[in-house]
């Protein structure tokens, strides 16, 4: 039987042109590829609807140009790339991402296809050649009623990667024992986590005794080439004196020591995180549905000697960065940007990631533009109207086009809260909307 791991990373390609003559052919290719990759008809149909908007949009502005369409089986998702053969410094005109909301008089209906398409998929991003990428995750059954399965205290246990059934049981136990602030939303779908592990998005270790019981575990993923993000450790009815939390963290550190990563952050730490293994990276204020705030802590550990970095910073951000780098003992050369009044493209484009369980959303700049203020403002208004209480903005200090948005973020009510070392092309700064 073909396993999910064996299915992953299959690809199909179609060479065509941006002409409506090839519209039906291209859409059938995308939908049939998704079906071949195991995607259910409803999800494949939504991917097709998004693709229809993208093809129509690109054909409006790049009519007749050569187009390559690539589809990818990512095991738990299907990806589509519309690849152009153009100057990478010349993006498609009219990138209109002003935020979700009803159409207004004067809106460019063709370019609004980007916004419409983003509602049908999980991620939409601009490619370096000016093309567009889509990612639609597959639908998985939810964990259902969560019931804690008591586990006897294990003085002796073994830490190793689990088989699929043990992994699904572990994920259900995490969701049953811990609140949603302690694990990613993916944990609500055990089968999805299995496929994400098979695809390499997550890695996991669990602690078991002599039988089939799973008494605890820890998970992690690679964020770029130099940063590991960890979750846990998670323990089920295990006393601290048996050292299971230390064993799980030691197992994680042994595994990631083989990688090129410089550091690991624990972004979903539990009360069982052992003392002395990590330093406090910082905190954000999680706004709960009742309006109350609670601190969400983030931890950090250096894996090898930090090579130092040069990072860009707007003058308004320098003081915050200097304080954080001194506190974290990170060697950084801060290069200050200076605005020269140079021309900018007309339209900005932002990406969005959601965690609807925690009512949080993360914004990233994909393409800068003169209307960035209006775009960001509309995003924030719309997200708040939709009930998102936690709104974040991630800034990569490797790119001046992102750094130069600092004054705009301050004016819109965002404040810098965390620095993630090596979180992007350089360090990443997380801003939180303060209202």
Please give a structural write-up.
There is one protein chain. The strands form four sheets. The protein has a seven-stranded mixed sheet with strand order 6-7-8-9-10-12-11, sandwiched between helices. The chain has a five-stranded antiparallel sheet with strand order 1-2-3-5-4. Strands 15-16-17-19-18 form a five-stranded mixed sheet. The chain has eleven helices and 19 strands. The longest helix has 21 residues. 28% of the residues lie in helices and 30% in strands. Strand 2 and strand 3 form a beta hairpin. It has 435 residues and is an alpha+beta fold.
Secondary structural class: alpha+beta
Strand tally, please? 19
Give the SSE order as H and E letters: HEHHEEHEEEHHEEEHEEEEHEEEHEHHEE
Query: How far apart are the termini?
Result: 53 Å
**Count of helical segments?**
11
Shape: globular
Strand content: 25-35%
Helix content: 25-40%
For the largest sheet, list the strands in their spatial order.
Answer: 6-7-8-9-10-12-11
Main sheet properties? 7 strands, mixed
- Model regions low in confidence, pLDDT < 50 over at least 5 residues: 1-7, 88-111
- From the alpha carbons, calculate the radius of gyration and give it in angstroms: 23 Å
Average per-residue pLDDT, rounded, comes to 86
């Amino acid at each position: 039987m073909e396993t999910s791991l064996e299915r992953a990373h299959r690809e199909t390609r179609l060479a065509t042109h941006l002409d409506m003559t090839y519209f039906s052919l291209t859409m059938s290719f995308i939908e049939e590829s998704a079906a071949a990759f195991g995607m259910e008809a409803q999800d494949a149909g939504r991917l097709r609807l998004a693709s229809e908007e993208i093809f129509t949009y690109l054909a409006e502005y790049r009519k007749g140009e050569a187009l390559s369409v690539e589809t990818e089986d990512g095991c738990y998702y299907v990806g589509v790339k519309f690849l152009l053969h153009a100057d990478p410094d010349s993006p498609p005109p009219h990138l209109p991402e002003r935020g979700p909301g009803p159409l207004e008089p004067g809106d460019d209906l063709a370019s609004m296809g980007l916004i419409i398409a983003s509602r049908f998929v999980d991620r939409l991003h601009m490619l370096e050649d000016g093309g567009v990428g889509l990612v639609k995750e597959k639908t998985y059954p939810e964990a259902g009623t969560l019931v804690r399965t008591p586990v006897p205290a294990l003085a002796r246990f073994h830490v190793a990667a689990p088989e699929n059934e043990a992994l699904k049981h572990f994920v259900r136990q995490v969701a049953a024992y811990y609140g949603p602030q302690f694990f990613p939303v993916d944990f609500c779908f055990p089968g999805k986590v299995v496929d994400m592990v098979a695809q390499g998005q997550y890695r996991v270790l669990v602690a078991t005794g002599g039988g089939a019981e799973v008494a605890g575990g820890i998970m992690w993923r690679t964020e770029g080439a130099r940063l590991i993000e960890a979750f846990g450790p998670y323990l089920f009815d295990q006393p601290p004196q048996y050292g299971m939390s230390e064993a799980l963290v030691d197992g994680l550190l042994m595994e990631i020591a083989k990688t090129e990563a410089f550091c690991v952050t624990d972004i979903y730490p539990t009360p069982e995180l052992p003392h002395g293994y990590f330093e406090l990276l910082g905190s954000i204020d999680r706004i709960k549905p009742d309006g109350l705030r609670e601190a969400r802590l983030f931890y950090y550990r250096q894996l090898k000697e930090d090579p130092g970095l040069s990072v860009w910073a707007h003058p308004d951000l320098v003081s915050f960065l200097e304080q954080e780098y001194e506190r974290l003992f990170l060697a950084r050369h801060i290069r200050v940007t200076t605005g020269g009044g140079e021309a900018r493209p007309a339209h900005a484009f932002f990406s969005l990631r959601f965690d609807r369980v925690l009512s949080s959303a993360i914004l990233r700049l994909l393409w800068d533009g003169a209307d960035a203020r209006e775009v960001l403002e509309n995003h924030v208004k719309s997200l708040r109207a939709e009930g998102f209480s936690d709104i974040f903005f991630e800034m990569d200090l490797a790119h001046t086009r992102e750094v130069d948005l600092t004054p705009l973020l301050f004016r819109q009510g965002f404040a810098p809260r965390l620095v993630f070392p090596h979180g992007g092309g350089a360090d990443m700064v997380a801003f939180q909307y303060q209202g």
